[in-house]
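Here is an idea for our session: we take a single protein and study its fold together. Once you have written the record down, we can walk along the chain together.
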Amino acid sequence: QAGGQAEMTRLLDAICTNETHFFREGAQFDLLRDRVCAEWLSEEEAGRRSRTVKVWSAACSTGEEPHSIAMVLEDRLGRLGWGIDILATDLSTKVLDQASAGVWRLDKATPIPEHYLKSYMLKGVGPEAGKVKAGAQIRSHIRFAQVNLRDAEWPVRERFDAIFVRNVLIYFDAPTRH
């Protein structure tokens, strides 16, 4: 109570679960790539949508999820000239700093499919050996913000074409999930 917002931030950074990896729960990325992107392309072709897609990664942790989303969307839509806007949020400012840097240990890149790895990630050399960095193309699609999903009101007021929230809901009780 007496520590103020700075103390609350340190507490939240200390207790947050930050379990994540690239392409976690692969079926959701297969669905995004194969069905959802195909539907968006069909809608655009029929004149029912713009060539911009907005996605929210609602609990992005250290950034592997929004960067995975960015790779899929860039591969399927970005190369066709679509605009891609991904909002990546988390409660922890500590993981948001890491996520926005877009740098991980090289072993964290193991789940990334080979063609995405070669197209969108940079392997560290010299003093950066043993690290991997998201390339500028996919980083340019992502913006980061702190959001507490348990707050009564969120600062997020925009509309999204897709929201990734699956891997945080498991930590909430049933009324909160609803």
Remarks:
- The two ends are 29 Å apart (CA to CA).
